[in-house]
């Protein structure tokens, strides 16, 4: 297991039809991520970015998606080596989940199709917020030096 269970974990359940997206669901997916899955995210950057841009409920995550892709690229090419695997795996799960049109609530269902995508993004971002801020601080410092 990549990480231990969190103590006193509050479950962020978001009910959707007959299914629930919660922290346990996302955590289970994160623990199963492999290097090949991260490569799959990188190979599908354009499709994921397009979905973030074109799906009305996901548009506010467009910039966040750009940051996550930049972070993965910097980790992959070794310019930012300080990223825990848990954070990389969480980003991969969130972006792969968005890419998948047939997830817990299929995206083509009007009004509710993106609720589960938003839930997975929100849960994941809550877990890695600190690492995202560290990465952005590092990027700003790098830009000042250049």
Automatic annotation (TrEMBL):
Q: What is the topology of this protein in the membrane according to its UniProt annotation? A: Multi-pass membrane protein
Residue ranges annotated as coiled coil are: none
**Which cellular components does GO assign to this protein?**
endomembrane system
Annotated Pfam families: DUF1232 (PF06803)
Pinpoint the DUF1232 domain residues: 88-122
Which keywords does this chain's UniProt record carry? Membrane, Transmembrane, Transmembrane helix
InterPro entries recorded for this chain?
Answer: DUF1232 (IPR010652)
Q: Where in the cell is it found?
A: Endomembrane system
Q: Which domain of life is it from?
A: Bacteria
Q: What is this protein called?
A: YkvA family protein
Give the organism the record lists: Aequorivita flava
Organism classification, top ranks? Bacteria, Pseudomonadati, Bacteroidota, Flavobacteriia, Flavobacteriales
